[in-house]
Amino acid sequence: MAKTPIEIKSLARAHTDAAIKTLVGIMNQPNASEAARVAAVKELLDRGWGKATQLHGGDPDAGPVVMTWLKS
Q1: By residue range, what is the domain housing residue 36?
Q2: Is 54 within a domain?
């Protein structure tokens, strides 16, 4: 029988300590690729401090977007 999303989330959370330790191990492994180390650092920071704010769409140098509602 398939597991529900809640069950899957609970199972994943049960491995939090091991996952964090693995990420720290990769981050501290001098023989790991720089890409792997950066990815581990990013995941740790995202989980500890939240993801950085991201702009969504548009040109950041352009002015504000003006929306006009047209009646049909």
Answers
A1: 16-49
A2: no
Residue at 69 is within a domain: no
Q: Tokens 């492994």 appear where?
A: 29
Overall domain count for the chain: 1
Alpha helices in 1-72 (DSSP H): 5-13, 16-28, 34-49
The proportion of the chain whose per-residue pLDDT surpasses 90, expressed as a percent, equals 53
Q: Give the pLDDT confidence of 36-53 residue by residue, as tens digits.
A: 999 999 999 998 999 877
Diameter of the chain by CA atoms? 64
Statement: the pTM of the whole predicted model exceeds 0.70: no
H or E segment to which residue 22 belongs: helix 16-28
C-alpha span between 2 and 14 (Å, rounded): 18
